[in-house]
Amino acid sequence: MSETALIEIGIGETRALVLDGEIVVEAHVERDDGGLRAGDLWAARLAKILVPGVRGIVLAGDAEALLEPLPPGLTEGALVRVEVVREAIPEAGRLRLAKVAARAGAIRGPGRISHGPDLVARLHARRLPVTETSGYGADRLEEAGWSETLEAATTGHKAFSHGLLTISPTPAMTVIDIDGAAALEVLALSAADAAAAAIRCFDITGSIGIDFPTVADKGVRTRIGELLDAALPKPFERTAVNGFGFVQIVRPRQRASLVELLRATPVASAALALLRAGERAVGAGDRVVTAAPPVIDWLTARADLTEELERRCGARVRLQADAALATAAGHVATIPR
Length: 337
Hints:
Blueprint: E1 3-9, E2 13-20, E3 23-31, E4 41-51, E5 55-60, E6 63-67, E7 79-86, E8 89-91, E9 94-96, E10 98-102, E11 111-114, H1 119-125, E12 130-133, H2 140-144, H3 146-155, E13 157-160, E14 163-169, E15 174-179, H4 184-201, E16 206-211, H5 218-231, E17 237-238, E18 246-251, H6 258-264, H7 266-280, E19 286-291, H8 293-300, H9 303-313, E20 317-321, E21 331-335
Parallel strand pairs: 1-12, 6-10, 15-16, 19-20
Antiparallel strand pairs: 1-2, 2-3, 4-5, 4-7, 4-11, 5-6, 7-10, 8-9, 13-14, 14-15, 16-18, 17-18, 19-21
Helix pairs in contact: 3-6, 4-5, 7-8, 7-9
């Protein structure tokens, strides 16, 4: 069955699902936070040399990025033409800097030279049939399984026919653990397809470790590898499945996975979900957004987002903090004036 894409250009973020029939095979969220995007070209300024001839920090607009390797003869304060090859990666307690590489070409002054492709452009470039949805009418994303997919990415728990995947991002790699009550060989073989599907669905890239059940039969371990080879998005490299059931996969990395993004930004994720709910709220009257204080503080600091919600729904937006609410437990009500 041919794949199709649903795209929703929301307030503060763009959301998308890729579907194979009625099955969600990919889920994407791209934030409109002004950060460096993979494929951007910049005339950046070298702010600091970290290791001479090896790496340094550049300023691309207001954002810092890691330049590696350093072009010969480049000195601190000089301009250099760079391409963003990996976006910043949110991690617990810190943000791993975006990574850039020097590119040949003219420089007329500091600043952005060109934009890298956004989520919409990347999906169109794959020549998928694309449907762009809006905040009005039927909620096509929700009907296709948006909330369930985000819940799985947020918790890291993804059920499959014979068990459960637990997906855990770490600074070194994303680890996928497998649990289930089936016979070890059955569990391991069914988990191979499930893990590959999760890697694609949540756009997990970089270094990935899958901890399969220990299977003594080398032929079964070989079959696990063959299933991964057939199902994983290319390109990738992997090790053999060792005697303890562990396999390491490396996929090219340009941005954070959906799991990493949602895990590292719970307040922003909750706030943006409320803006989506506010856009879809029905009835005449003010939109009252009630949420935990950190969520309200996040929205208050970004007045442009609530102003956009007012523009889209044609109503005034009021923010109301409730310390009794959990981060993700906010809600939107329509209150007649």
